[in-house]
Automatic annotation (TrEMBL):
<dbReference type="InterPro" id="IPR005801">
    <property type="entry name" value="ADC_synthase"/>
</dbReference>
<dbReference type="GO" id="GO:0008909">
    <property type="term" value="F:isochorismate synthase activity"/>
</dbReference>
<keyword id="KW-0413">Isomerase</keyword>
<dbReference type="Pfam" id="PF00425">
    <property type="entry name" value="Chorismate_bind"/>
</dbReference>
<feature type="region of interest" description="Disordered">
    <location>
        <begin position="224"/>
        <end position="245"/>
    </location>
</feature>
<dbReference type="InterPro" id="IPR004561">
    <property type="entry name" value="IsoChor_synthase"/>
</dbReference>
<feature type="compositionally biased region" description="Basic and acidic residues">
    <location>
        <begin position="231"/>
        <end position="245"/>
    </location>
</feature>
<feature type="compositionally biased region" description="Basic and acidic residues">
    <location>
        <begin position="445"/>
        <end position="454"/>
    </location>
</feature>
<dbReference type="InterPro" id="IPR015890">
    <property type="entry name" value="Chorismate_C"/>
</dbReference>
<feature type="domain" description="Chorismate-utilising enzyme C-terminal">
    <location>
        <begin position="139"/>
        <end position="394"/>
    </location>
</feature>
<protein>
    <recommendedName>
        <fullName>isochorismate synthase</fullName>
        <ecNumber>5.4.4.2</ecNumber>
    </recommendedName>
</protein>
<comment type="similarity">
    <text>Belongs to the isochorismate synthase family.</text>
</comment>
<feature type="region of interest" description="Disordered">
    <location>
        <begin position="406"/>
        <end position="454"/>
    </location>
</feature>
Length: 454
């Protein structure tokens, strides 16, 4: 048995389990947001770079280097920084240098800990009834925001905006987060798993399929995803859906905006850059995605994984294109602060190596409360109904790990309560035990705006 770690991150390349905090780094990566509205010509010229590398950003990375030096002086031989950067880089980062950590192989960990017995007990322990669920925005408002974004594209240079929602769940009791995390890992053995305790006692937990950046020496890798379709139970149907996705001009266009933006960011930083001509298909348990694996060799070997990741972040896979204008549109139509949702999560060492995944297919968990996040890239040809369905399909990763039916988020599939009680009775009983009906509007960050503000 392991002690509960301060931080857990796993990919096919490396697993990291960290304990104790030596030093926190809770500054924003960028101290100010750019508010000036550029003219069209300037907007085009800046579209890809949108001033993402600033003096402030350099100051942040200098502070990190200094923190590594202090950690070394304090006897931490090979310090690493772990944590997350929010979607909006002008908000404080949640980074820390742990007192100790161990690196391990995820494959071995899964083999040792996820035998059939522990899978079943993980499923049972993590299954809960949902007493209340609330989507912010709700279906009508989300679709309205999609229509607003499309109307905006016609009047501006914005070509894509990623709109998202948070599904707020009140469960009938506290979740066993160890069991839940194990269940999530077992159901989604590939990708990037993370578990990050936050200052307010909550935890950010997820299984993201998307790599923003990995750096090993001078080599950098990125694997952006954009363009999605829901997986099907029937294998023949599933194959047809994947083929339709790879032929969909709307999805290929949506994907190409991401790739061109990342290419424009990486090109000046790289002596070599390999970007495949066309996207390929990849899948998770719940979704098909268009995916482009990108590899580069850095010109400057001192540029760290986190510096390059912050240069790219947020890509049009989570924000839009052009980035700055899309960000403003998101702020206008999205009725909540994303916080760490849509941010990046990972680690880096003092040599600049590290791995940063995009914080999607994730949630924030506090006792018996979960907030799950899902977004969808909107372009001119988007259909509001199918974009809403896409967010539902993406939520399935976390809902399945919770044992909740995504179509009926108020019905848990797996019942761990005593037999002979109806779901209704159990819900009522649990609500009475809880002693109150949850006031979602009173919830704090990130669901903290009352309605669509546009
Ligand atoms: C914003 C999310 O997905 C991104 C990653 C893959 C495909 C996406 C899409 O097709 O819109 C999104 O860009 C999410 O899962 O919440």
């Amino acid at each position: 048995m392991h002690r509960t770690p301060e931080f857990l991150f796993m990919s096919s390349h490396c697993g990291i389990r960290a304990h104790g905090i030596y030093e926190r780094l809770c500054l924003p990566v960028r101290a100010t947001s750019e508010t000036g509205k550029p003219g069209r010509a300037r907007l085009r010229a800046e579209s890809a770079s949108c001033a993402r590398s600033t003096a402030n950003e350099q100051a942040f990375h200098t502070r990190l280097r200094e923190a590594f030096q202090r950690a070394r002086s304090a006897g931490i031989a090979n310090p690493i920084a772990i944590g997350a950067i929010p979607f909006d880089q002008t908000r404080p980062a949640q980074l820390s240098i742990p007192r100790s950590y161990e690196m391990f192989s995820r494959a071995l960990e899964v083999e040792q800990n996820c035998g059939l017995e522990s899978i079943q007990s993980g499923a049972e322990k993590s299954a809960r009834h949902v007493l209340h669920s609330n989507s912010v925005p709700d279906e009508a408002r989300f679709k309205q925001a999609v229509r607003q974004a499309i109307a905006n594209f016609k009047l501006s240079d914005i070509r894509k905006a990623v709109l998202s929602r948070v599904l707020d769940l009140e469960l009938d009791g506290p979740l066993d987060l160890d069991a839940f995390f194990q269940h999530l890992l077992t159901q989604n053995p590939a990708g990037y798993h993370f578990r990050l305790p936050l200052d307010d006692g909550s935890q950010l937990i997820g299984a993201s399929p998307e790599l923003l950046l990995r750096r090993q020496g001078r080599e950098v890798f990125s694997n952006p995803l954009a363009g999605s379709a829901r997986r099907q139970v029937d294998p023949e149907q599933d194959r047809k859906v994947s083929e339709k996705l790879s032929r969909s001009s709307k999805d290929v266009y949506e994907h190409s905006l991401v790739i061109e933006d990342i290419r424009a960011q990486l090109q000046p930083l790289c002596a070599e850059l390999a970007v495949p001509e066309a996207p390929q298909l990849m899948h998770t348990r719940a979704m098909w995605h268009l995916s482009t694996p990108i590899r580069g060799i850095l010109n400057d070997p001192t540029l760290t994984a986190l510096q390059v990741a912050c240069r790219l972040h947020p890509t049009p896979a989570l924000c839009g294109f052009p980035s700055r204008e899309a960000h403003k549109l998101i702020q206008l139509v999205e009725p909540f602060e994303r916080g760490l949702f849509g941010g990046i999560v990972g680690w880096c060492d003092a040599e600049g190596n590290g791995e940063w995944a995009v914080a999607i297919r994730c949630g924030i968990f506090t006792d018996s409360h979960a907030q799950l996040f899902a977004g969808a890239g909107i372009v001119e040809d988007s259909d509001p109904d199918s974009e809403w369905r896409e967010t539902q399909a993406k939520l399935q990763t976390m809902l399945s790990a919770l044992g909740v039916d995504p179509e009926q988020p108020c019905t848990a599939k797996v019942d761990t309560r005593p037999a002979g009680q109806s779901a209704q009775e159990k819900s009522e009983e649990s609500a009475q035990q809880a002693g109150h009906k949850v006031n979602h509007a009173a919830r704090k960050h990130p669901v903290d705006k009352a309605g669509v503000r546009a």
